[in-house]
Write a structure and sequence with these properties.
Shape: globular
Oligomer: single chain
Helix content: 25-40%
Number of strands: 10
Distance between the termini: 24 Å
Radius of gyration: 20 Å
Strand content: 15-25%
Structural class: alpha+beta
Number of helices: 12
Amino acid sequence: MLKHLALDEGAYDLKMNVRQLAPDCIIDVDAAMYARERALKDEILAGDAHYYCQTLPGTEAMQWETIEILLPNMARFYPEHFTLTTNGDRWRWTNLLLGTETAFTLGDPATLPLSPLDWVGRQVQEDLCVMDGNDPGSPLVAGHLCFASGWCLDDKMGRSFLAIHAPVPLFAEKIGRPADLMMQRVKVGRPTARVNWTIHPSDRLNCAPVMKQQYAFEHDGITPENAGERYYLRSEWQTFVRYPRTNAVLFTIRTRVTPLAEALPDPDDARRLATLLRTMPPAMLAYKSLTRHAEMLLAYLDARTRARESVTM
């Protein structure tokens, strides 16, 4: 099973499944994929920087605090990849995975080659969203979003946490209030985390709405026999971190895409996923773009389950 992801046993049920992040490692570094995904971010941002990185006026302090939170955390948990030295506001960041070194003055934008959020967003494999915790609705006020699954900053910037998730079927009825309370109750020094998942017909990380027509052919040619290689389990490891100074909440999204056959090495995982798909409400299947492909996926997953049963009989 994939890192961080464990499929629920039994019928599908939309849940938050938030847990305390212990240890408090905010960023999930995959050294084997780091350089490739970092280069992909550069390529995406070079094509349309404003579409993928946006910050509202007045968020400069929150952007700098993102740097203050993330760099020490990364250096502490991944000393083999990153080092940080500080002398008051003078910081020196060494990224050994990229072979780069950046010296800057905290709070001085002239000392960074990019805006603070854009620069730190290119140091991590995660997407970064900054929510204003001083507003009861926790609106999105800054984002570095290269690998989103079917949404974009143009549609969400400035909207409340609940409004951002309004398109998710059953969200308001099932988990809207608990999710909103969770955002308000994230405490300084006690980050939390959760996992989300879906299934895509490619390993493409950039699934922004602007890309939809370009990749409309991705489902072509998929059969129950090759579904394990052509379909990908797309998992999101999400963390929530409260800032001590500005009271913002950082929402990180670490996306991994893995072929189904590799993501579900145990036939019991295939059985669990089949049960979840069979019991998923039609509106959720449609939201995940799985309605017309569910039967094919189930045929593949059922074959995996039967293979285990035939061996054990």
